[in-house]
Amino acid sequence: MSCSGLEQCIPFMRFDHFTGNEVTYIFTLIGLGCIPLICFGIGYILIQRRRRMGWDISYDDLSATAVDDDAPKDRYSIQAFEWLDECYVRQVIVEFAPGILTVRKPRGQILRKMIFPENADITVYHSEPNASTIHGPYCLIKLKKTHDLVLRLPSDKHLPEFLAALTLCLKKFDGRVTSIATPNEVLLEKAETKERRQQRLDHFFREAYARAFDQPKLSDATNREHDSDDILNQTITKSELAQAMGMRENDVFVERMFAVTSRTDSDVITFAEFLEVLKQFNEG
């Protein structure tokens, strides 16, 4: 048999979805790769928004059992969040004992202690009732000679318990608690946290040195418009003065410097008093 009379054989071919659709496949893969990035970006934005509201994702672990029912009668413990600035909050445990408020990490490490003196007059600014249907109220605790403490409680029902525990904490020392309902925005703006206090102190010393030694470059130009009233009313404590000088509070130089500078109050010195002493040093 001769093969010259047979039809030409067509090579075997399989169906391929990719052939002719190369551009479509490329854009499809790019789109699939962008989806995780978009989800990550949305999640990051939501987290930042919640933090600005004074919230953190770990709040989801808090429940109505935030109060420690097993604590002794003269002690009170509650889980809360400490508000440090617009972008940072942290979960803490707040404990009350007679004359002492302790802020701890959830694992027990002490973050801060507020020791109330006798006859202490404590002002507590708290959120207005039902200020938020999702999150609990803020509490701003002000104590002289230290930076403020800003807490966010689990819910509105914990606020009366918190204020009652603070009142009981001061009762043995003849202290008094004044509570004031305040809008959240005003409360957070009023708070002088550790970070904000440090910024004010930096501004305090820059302005003092700039005016005493006639060096305008040392002045903070960004705050110049609001400088007059704010800086003149600013005060610092002995411990803050010692820290700024890199010394201990009980050092002889700090004691004498503070004694020479302070005229109206033995616990704090004003900007005007500090500036006058610097000018005297400068003039010899």
Walk me through the structure.
The protein is an alpha+beta fold. The chain has 2 domains: 76-190, Roll (PH-domain like); 194-283, Recoverin, domain 1. Helices cover 38% and strands 21% of the residues. The chain has helices at residues 22-52, 158-171, 184-190, 194-212, 227-232, 238-245, 252-261, 271-283, and strands at 76-85, 88-97, 100-104, 110-115, 121-127, 138-142, 149-152, 176-182, 235-237, 268-270. The strands form 2 sheets. Strands 4-3-2-1-7-6-5-8 form an 8-stranded mixed sheet. The chain has a two-stranded antiparallel sheet with strand order 9-10. Helix 4 (194-212) packs parallel to helix 8 (271-283). It is elongated and about 125 Å long. GO terms for molecular function: calcium ion binding. It comes from Strongylus vulgaris. InterPro entries: EF-hand-dom_pair (IPR011992), EF_hand_dom (IPR002048).
